[in-house]
Amino acid sequence: MTEKKMYPKVMCTQHPDSISRYISTQEETYEAVEAAMKYGCDEYMPDYEGKTTPYHQSAQIVSRFIEETDLTPGKDIFITPRVPSAVHENLFRQLMVMMATAEANYISHKQLGIQAIDEVVHPMTSSVLQIIDSQQHMIDVNELAKKEFRFEMEAPRIIPLIEEVPKLLNAKEIIGSTINAYQEQLNQTPEKYRVFLGKSDSALTFGHVASTLSCKYAISELHELEDGIGIPIGIIFGTGALPFRGHMTLENKDNFFMEYKGIDTVTLQSALRFDHEKGNAEEFVRCAKDELSKSPDRLSAREKEELVNIIAIFGASYNRAIQQFSSTINSIADFLPQQRDRLMREGSTGYARDLPDATSMCRLCRSDIGNELHASMSCGSMNLPRAIKFTGALYSIGIPPEIIGTGSAIEGVREKLGDNVCERLLTRYFPSLRSDLIFAFEYLDTNTASRFLSDSLHESIRKEVDILRDIFDIETQCEPSYRMLLEMANPHLLCAADNGCIMDADLLQLTRSILVKMGKMRKSLG
User: Fold this and answer.
1) Neighbours of 143 (CB within 10 A)
2) pTM, rounded to two decimals
3) CA 26 to chain centre
4) Does residue 405 come out as left (phi exceeding 0), alpha (psi in the -120 to 50 range) or beta?
5) Cα gap 392→331, rounded to integer Å
6) 509 burial class (0-12, 13-18, 19+ CB within 10 angstroms)?
7) Are residues 266 and 399 in the same domain?
8) What is the dihedral of CA 239, 240, 246, 249, to 10 degrees?
9) Residue 124 placed within a domain
């Protein structure tokens, strides 16, 4: 087995999932210092993906650590920017952020003789070509900076962020081919290599269960790759507080560390820091430093085959439901507060989430299961909102997304793959699913939600709920005060979903205040 290198354990991020705190880009440099000094994080991610983050923020953060703390950037605290995607945003923004990274390294080299930034994150990675092209851009920018400023530094390495289910299932091939490309095209052999796996966006397009299983599949596969090539692979796991986005909370820590054994770094997002009880985030960070980098659950060839088919069944069930009211979700998502300075969803400086191409995944499945998955995927663009607002929108109408498609998919697994496979799903592959569902049921109210749904979709979701109550013996009902807020918000959100409805400023403010109260009850925007 490959000897493990030490990696940062907790990466503080700028995800806007806090319901109680808006944080401006000006405040984020202070947030970075607080992440290390108050919460004990050993990594911070300045985020330029879909955000209006100033290009010089990374340099400001490095300067602040040098001037105000005893921590040395690049040694005691790691600064790891997430650059924009040249494909989904534009190349100009990516190059500007890379040049800002060079500026940060110039500052740290000049003052401390050390390179502050060794790695940058590349979002929405779908191919080896994207990684190598971005790495070459980083090398070119690095060479320009060395020429103009006359100092020596290594080009920061690209960390690919894989956040689509089909790509998670292909993570071993993508990363193995990437490391080969480093050797053959860039004449580099990495001493170690980090990979970022995303829970939220894979859930957005395939549902909660398919996303969870795909991440666990990728973790197992990357450890196999590590053993095969002899290069340590560090796994960063991007996860939020609500179950749909990973269920990383202090209350759920035992389930979280059990489910995701084998990861090396977790993301500490905004909700756990600002919406949960005081001290919870610090305690979770201490637990993470003890629990991470443990040996993963290794999957056999038979188990991998089962998992791919299970994931396809859940993905098809989820997509059949979600496409029926995607426009409603978008309308309600726009009502939720903007807690960081984001780019607009569409246009030359923005981007939108869309469904992934599942063709390669369909070929891995049993033919009948693959055909059902292919048929469930939309032919056109759904223009989905970001995962946090997507999650928040569904909770705001009384349909937690963890429930969508889940009951019928479990029945589908039993019918298509047999009782034994279904039993392994619930006891081996995803043993904490019941805990996730019990949490979601506290915010479930199908009667209030029914006004946003067609009669047929409302009936199918009621059936999902009945199936889940029966399988998992769940008696949990919607928290009464949350139900009251759902009923108060309902008529206003129905107006928002009507394109012809115009809401005056006072009513808009009232509606948003109700949504914020609901978010505070579930301790996260989304």
Assistant:
1) 12
2) 0.95
3) 24
4) left
5) 12
6) exposed
7) no
8) 120
9) yes
Long-range contacts of residues 492-496, Cβ cutoff 8 Å, at least 24 apart: 493/332, 493/335, 493/396, 493/397, 493/452, 494/451, 494/452, 496/331, 496/332, 496/334, 496/335
CA distance 508 to 511: 5
Beta-carbon contacts of residue 34 (< 8 Å; ≥ 6 apart): none
Phi, psi of 257 (to 5 degrees): -70, -25
Q: What is the pLDDT of residues 364-408, one digit of tens each?
A: 899 999 999 999 986 555 678 899 999 999 999 999 999 999 999
> Which DSSP letter does residue 476 get?
-
Q: Give the domain extent around 190.
A: 10-294
Phi, psi of 63 (to 5 degrees): -60, -40
Write down the pLDDT at residue 385: 87
Residue with tokens 């060079």: 102
Would you say the C-alpha torsion 397, 398, 400, 403 has a positive or negative sign?
negative
Backbone angles phi and psi of 95, in degrees to 5: -65, -40
385 and 472 within one domain: yes
Average pLDDT rounded to a whole number, residues 50-74: 95
Query: If you ran DSSP here, which 8-state letter would residue 342 be given?
Result: B
pLDDT greater at residue 202 or residue 503: 202
What CATH number should be reported for the domain holding residue 89?
3.20.20.60
What is the separation of C-alpha 491 from the centre of its chain, rounded to a whole number of angstroms?
A: 31
Q: Which residue has the tokens 């609901």?
A: 518
